[in-house]
Amino acid sequence: MPTLFPDEAKSVIEALLFVSGDPLTAKDIAEILCLEEKEVLNFLKEIKADCEKERRGFCLVEVAGGFAFSTRPEHAAHIEKLVRPRLSSLSQAALETLAIIAYQQPVARSEIEEIRGVKCESAINTLLERGLIEEGGRRETPGRPILYRTTPDFLKYLGIRSLEDLPALKRIEAEEPDRENQD
Amino acid sequence: MVYKIKVPVFEGPLDLLLHLIEKNEVDIYNIPIALIVQQYLEYLALAREVDLELTSEFLLMVCTLLAIKARMLLPRHAASSEEEEEEEDPRRELVEKLLEYKIYKEVAGEFREKEILWSKVFWREIDEAKLLKEFPPLNPLGTVTMADLFTAYNHVLRKYEKKREVVSITRDEITVREKIEYILNRLYKKPSGLSFKSLFSGMSSRSEVIVTFLALLELARRGTVMLRQAHLFSDILIFLNESKGGEDSADSVSG
């Protein structure tokens, strides 16, 4: 394949992003175009800046380990007249369950229930149906419980780049309880 | 007139407990159990009017709280040593669970914000099944046919078999000298006489049996051992020759 001029390369990258259903990684693009990953990342940065500068209707988002075009949030009202709105938002129970799976994965149902103090079966089923979590093997302990983990769609759902970019847990160091003040 | 009772919905006993702790502005490390139990039960009573199907987890929590209270009311041992002063606070386990739950409840809140933000964003949806049908992927094997693959496989197999022919197998070397040492050892442990049969029991290889027999013959030739048989076809017993005193060793093997 002949070497691409920078403008051509940017154009081809836009085309690849347009056709791809899933977020494309810079590595994938680099392999297709026979370019260095670093160069591709620079082009992606430029494409992102172009979209902003020209106030295009779409923007370039880094999500679920790759890059993808998405619409701008401010256009949602118009878009929803064209395509049916997304599924309803998740219940509090489902969100809490999802949070535990996201940070503890792979994790068994009983471990989630231990943290939440309530049964989580229906929450897990909802998350499975929505494709936000999946089964990821079994724990080799008695009963061989199913282990759950999040999917790339989970990252896309919350607009997160990768699991490393999950918000940090605010863990509070347990202090010695104050024995003076008992009821 | 219809009364509408609005009862806040809690995600579970820990959620309700956290709510009560925050509402009363009490220290999570120093929960006033009696107060919390009272309010907890008030909520349950209210909620039960609306929803009889209140989950057992809520009721179980009441029991846990009451058990903690009971343990706190029990007189403590007089603090005779420092170890006993370090006695576990009965609330500790519950506090740890609450803190753990609180972490994830907060993260769930952050997830909710992200969910709302990103629900306003749309992605290109690609019908991959349709794309695959319209643009079937190229055969990665190109023009290679089944027969080509079979020939190639056979070729590799033949090469592999040829290689296997030159594999050398090393034989376990058992020397007469080692076996002499072995027989003498067994004889020292058994001065009453070693049975000929038992000498060979447990030997798996033909060469080992032969070498052991040769060793025995050698010992007999040198007069180190004596062989006795009580009657025809009975087991042969092997003894150390007392006159020779078993001083002989494997080193003096000739030939």
Question: Features of this protein?
Answer:
heterodimer; A: 183 residues; alpha+beta; two-stranded antiparallel ribbon; 8 helices; 14% strand; globular; B: 255 residues; mainly alpha
C-alpha geometry of chain B:
flat
What order do the helices and strands of chain A follow? HHHEEHHEHHEEH
Strand order, main sheet of chain B: write it out: 1-3-2
- Share of residues in helices of chain A: 40-55%
Structural class of chain B: mainly alpha
Q: Over all CA atoms, what is the radius of gyration of chain A? A: 22 Å
The biggest sheet of chain A, with number of strands, parallel, antiparallel or mixed sense and barrel status, is: 3 strands, antiparallel
Commentary on this structure:
- The complex is a heterodimer of chains A (183) and B (255).
- Chain A has helices at 6-19, 26-33, 37-53, 76-82, 92-104, 109-116, 121-129, 152-157, and strands at 58-63, 66-71, 107-108, 133-138, 146-150.
- Chain A is an alpha+beta fold and 183 residues long.
- In chain A, helix 2 (26-33) packs across helix 3 and helix 5 packs across helix 7.
- The longest helix of chain A is centred in the first third of the chain and has 17 residues, at 37-53.
- Chain B has a three-stranded antiparallel β-sheet.
- The termini of chain B are far apart.
- With 255 residues, chain B is mainly α.
- Chain B is built from ten helices and three strands; from the N terminus they run ααααααααβααββ.
- The chains are: A alpha+beta (183), B mainly alpha (255).
- At the A-B interface, strand 2 and helix 5 of A face helix 2, helix 3 and helix 5 of B.
